[in-house]
Please model this.
Amino acid sequence: MAPDKDALQAKKARVVSLVIAGTMVLWIGAQWIGSKVGISTRYALLLDLLALAAFVWALIVVYQIWRARQKG
Model:
């Protein structure tokens, strides 16, 4: 791989790691706050689906990074 592509892949990997860590922290915090406040299950499910969407996006980008490294 060229140095530019390596830098781009590293940047993508950093973004993915931040998304995964941030999503986990926000999701756990939202679940904790939601249990204390007593939000309805409808909103709790919405928070779960948003976290799941972030994890699916991260998995897709990790797969793209892996495939790009296999080609290079």
Helices lie at 3-37, 41-71.
